Structure formats: structure tokens, C-alpha cells
């Protein structure tokens, strides 16, 4: 209970960018060095923020412990153009360093593949296309605190209040898809990845990307 009392829940602010990117880098890109983690995670975060219409961040004494981002169909992303410009600027800067460029290529190839799958999903006009969970991340330091479930529940409460008929998300075999199945989502699409993921060779390894959906 003492730990819970120290938590602060609020919307993402621009000054949180570095802290969230750092969390993404050390959580999802441990195979890269710190500079490569920073470059790839900053670009990926700017990419998601350029589409996000709603956010919720949880911190403890200034340390970001988790965040969820939503993109709602028909709503204008807050600061979307600025984040897209930052993504382009950071990408150009990273391309000047071969090591950074490789980390960015690996991470963003997976993001682009998921986006392609998402476009195919949305083309059928399912109810789940009303909104997308663009990002859900929780710090390993917060394991056992239930923050992932609380962030996810808050996002769904927001979508219900906004009148969304459903939502979907993109995930892959590097994530615990059982978390989403436990939350009541169902698998709408599955595709063997054609992208290179850290430790996965698309020529020899079976690694899948998924669309999960849920009606509200």
C-alpha cells in the first residue's frame, strides 16, 4: 500500500519524452548499446505520439513506471505534426551513424510490418477499428504492482466513455499475448513476420505478428 500511495497518474507531457524513450530502450532493446537504444526508442516513441489522441502515464517520484497511448478514429492527434517532424529529424540524424542506423532499421521494420497488417485489418471496417492501443509499456522495476492492468483498464474506460464500439492492438511473439487474452481480447489476424527482429532470422525462424481486438 505504501508503494501505491507514491504513484502519480497523469497524461503524458512533452517533458516526459526522454524518460519514456529510455524505458522503452532498456525494456525492449537490451541487445543494443545505450546510444542505439536511445536512437531507436526515441524514433519509435515519436512515431506513436504522432498518432496518439489520449495518454496515461504513471510515475513514482519522477521515475516513469509505465504508459499507455491510444489512437482514436476521427480524433486529431495532439501535437501530431510536431511529433512526426521530430521522428523524421531523429531518423536523419541516426542515419549518419551505421550502428544507430541499424538499430533504428531493426526496430522500425517491425513497426512498419505491424502497420501494414493493421491497414489490412482496418480495410474490413471492423468495430475494433474505432481505436488502437498504440503503446502499452510497464517498467521491469514495477513488476508485481499491477500497473499494466490498471493502465489498460483506464484506457478501456476512456474508450467506453468516448462511445467507441471496439478497439484493437498490434503485438508479436516477443510479448505476452496471454495478457490480452486474459483481458478478453480475441485474435483477429496472424501473420508470420517477414522482418528481422533481434535474435530472429525470418528465413529460418517462425515469428508471428498479430492483431487482437475486443468489442466494448
Lay out the secondary structure.
Elements (H helix, E strand, L loop, with lengths): L1 H4 L1 E4 L6 H12 L5 H16 L4 E7 L2 E10 L7 H15 L3 H26 L7 E8 L8 H16 L3 E7 L4 H6 L3 E7 L15 E8 L1
Parallel strand pairs: 4-5
Antiparallel strand pairs: 1-2, 2-3, 3-4, 5-7, 6-7
Helix pairs in contact: 2-3, 3-4, 3-5
Gist?
With 216 residues, the chain is an alpha+beta fold. The protein is built from seven helices and seven strands. A hairpin with a 2-residue loop joins strand 2 and strand 3 (63-72).
Can you characterise this structure?
The protein is of the alpha+beta class and about 220 residues long. The chain is built from 7 helices and 7 strands. The protein has a 7-stranded mixed beta sheet with strand order 1-2-3-4-5-7-6, with helices on both faces. Helix 2 crosses helix 3, helix 3 packs antiparallel against helix 4 and helix 3 runs parallel beside helix 5.
Q: Note the gap between the termini.
A: 31 Å
Integer-rounded radius of gyration: 17 Å
Shape: globular
Count the E strands.
Answer: 7
Sketch the topology as an H/E string, one letter per element.
HEHHEEHHEHEHEE
User: What percent strand?
Assistant: 15-25%
Backbone structural class: alpha+beta
Average predicted confidence as pLDDT: 92
Into which percent range does the helicity of residues fall? Answer: 40-55%
Give, in spatial order, the strands making up the sheet with the most strands: 1-2-3-4-5-7-6
Number of helices: 7
Low-confidence stretches: none
- Biggest β-sheet description: 7 strands, mixed
Amino acid at each position: 500500500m505504501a508503494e501505491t500511495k507514491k504513484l502519480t497518474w497523469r497524461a503524458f507531457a512533452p517533458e516526459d519524452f526522454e524518460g519514456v524513450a529510455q524505458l522503452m530502450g532498456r525494456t525492449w532493446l537490451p541487445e543494443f548499446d545505450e546510444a542505439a537504444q536511445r536512437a531507436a526508442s526515441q524514433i519509435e516513441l515519436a512515431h506513436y505520439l504522432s498518432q496518439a489522441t489520449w495518454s496515461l502515464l504513471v510515475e513514482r517520484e519522477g521515475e516513469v513506471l509505465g504508459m499507455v497511448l491510444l489512437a482514436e478514429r476521427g480524433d486529431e492527434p495532439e501535437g501530431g505534426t510536431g511529433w512526426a517532424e521530430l521522428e523524421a529529424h531523429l531518423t536523419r540524424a541516426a542515419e549518419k551513424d551505421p550502428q544507430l542506423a541499424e538499430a533504428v532499421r531493426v526496430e522500425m521494420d517491425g513497426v512498419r510490418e505491424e502497420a501494414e497488417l493493421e491497414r489490412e485489418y482496418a480495410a474490413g471496417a471492423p468495430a475494433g477499428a474505432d481505436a488502437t492501443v498504440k503503446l502499452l509499456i510497464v517498467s521491469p522495476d514495477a513488476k508485481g504492482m499491477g500497473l499494466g492492468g490498471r493502465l489498460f483498464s483506464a484506457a478501456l474506460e476512456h474508450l467506453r466513455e468516448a462511445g467507441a464500439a471496439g478497439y484493437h492492438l498490434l503485438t508479436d511473439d516477443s510479448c505476452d499475448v496471454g495478457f490480452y487474452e486474459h483481458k478478453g481480447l480475441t485474435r483477429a489476424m496472424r501473420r508470420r513476420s517477414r522482418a528481422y527482429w533481434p535474435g530472429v532470422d525470418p528465413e529460418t525462424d517462425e515469428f508471428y505478428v498479430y492483431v487482437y481486438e475486443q468489442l466494448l
